[in-house]
Amino acid sequence: MFLQTDDQTIEDLRLFAKRERSGIYDIYNNTSTRGGESLLEKMFRNPLSDKEAISKRAAIIEAFARQQTKFPFEPALLDNVEKYITQQNDNNEGRQSSLGEKEISNGVSAFISLFHAVQIFLEKGAIVQVQELLEERKRMIELLKLPALEPVLKEKPGTKISYAAVTAFDILIRIRERGQVISILQFIYEMDVFISVATVATKRQFIFPVVHPQSSNTLKLEGVYHPELKSPVPNSLSMNAATSIVFLTGANMAGKSTFLRAFSIAVYVAHMGFPVAAKSMEFSVMDGIYTTINLPDNLGIGASHFYAEVLRVKQVASELGAGKSIFVVFDELFRGTNVKDAHEGTVAVTHAFARKKNSLFLISSHIVEAGDELKQKPNIGFHYLPTRMNGAIPEYTYTLEKGITDDRHGMIIIRNEGILETLKKGKKE
Length: 429
Hints:
Blueprint (H helix, E strand, L loop, with lengths): L6 H6 L11 H5 L5 H12 L5 H16 L8 H11 L15 H24 L9 H11 L5 H5 L8 H14 L1 H27 L5 E3 L5 E7 L10 E6 L4 E6 L5 H15 L9 E5 L3 E5 L12 H17 L4 E5 L8 H16 L5 E5 L5 H5 L5 E6 L1 E4 L2 E4 L4 E2 L7 H7 L2 H7 L4
Parallel strand pairs: 1-5, 4-8, 4-9, 6-7, 7-8
Antiparallel strand pairs: 2-3, 2-5, 9-12, 10-11
Helix pairs in contact: 3-10, 4-10, 5-6, 6-7, 6-9
GO biological process, one term: mismatch repair
Keywords: ATP-binding, DNA-binding, Nucleotide-binding
InterPro entries: DNA_mismatch_repair_MutS_C, DNA_mismatch_repair_MutS_core, DNA_mismatch_repair_MutS_sf, MutS, P-loop_NTPase
């Protein structure tokens, strides 16, 4: 079972690199193989929504992290095997291979060495201490001991192989038992991902969240921070059925979008079974996660920014109407329209969200006046990111506080930049 999400959320959270910007994926990518890199991307695009699956994956990664496991296979060896095995041979064993004799010989030798390295890892490696991989380990041991693969098992790595033996091994590896060979490679890629993420967890001191059943509807993060920032300011926030909505206010540049991204990234990555950038975290499994932090105009359908926002709210409403448990983020809800409509729309939609107590909502807004009407709902909590004035200079703490901001420093910033003075002294038409 996978967590429902979409391209908008993936783009909002900047999970993947774009142009010169790195992505969250890059932080976790310490893989040694192309196959592992591809599998890691697949995991990023398909978070989990099953408690047991999330807990199992997290326990595996944590076990490798405790042992400080290093990837046990030579990347160069794997490169040779991958190049060799991806050359499809015809099922007609008499047909000439597209590979040269030397390439086939190197590929066969590389696979034999890799085969034995996998056997050693299964029998003596860090995987022995990973209880959650017991069944997978048994399955792989049985696969290596299949009668069809016995010639590979008996052949010693590094020994010179005759031309006739190379030909026989080539037919065995690339044709007859190709499916088993692919299974061995897939196992290696999986271990590559687990060990890669475990290494990142140790190096960056990421923590493994505690997972709760969906029915508990809880989300508690202490010391969460954005993993890409060099000097991040950690924040803490708890949500549950009693406080299923957090209404976030703060001046421009106070850090609202960064906080929303940091919090949402933690929720997303936790559903992958991966460690997160925080001091501690507890969460209940959700059906989906939808964020709206950087919503573009939909020029393809001639939609303005405001109409794009309306369509996004409609999409979320449809998911909620189906009874799903969803984590929802709206940054500056209805910023694309006038203040009056934004005020009324924010209040109406947030009131409607408040009735969906099996989901959790983070809504930021520049319409601070909406807070007074929203206080009518007991399950709406209020937080803000403050601005402190140092004389005429605004300073930002980036630290959450309870309540609604009363900061109104826009004109101070405009004056500080000398905009009005520049216009006043500028050349007259």
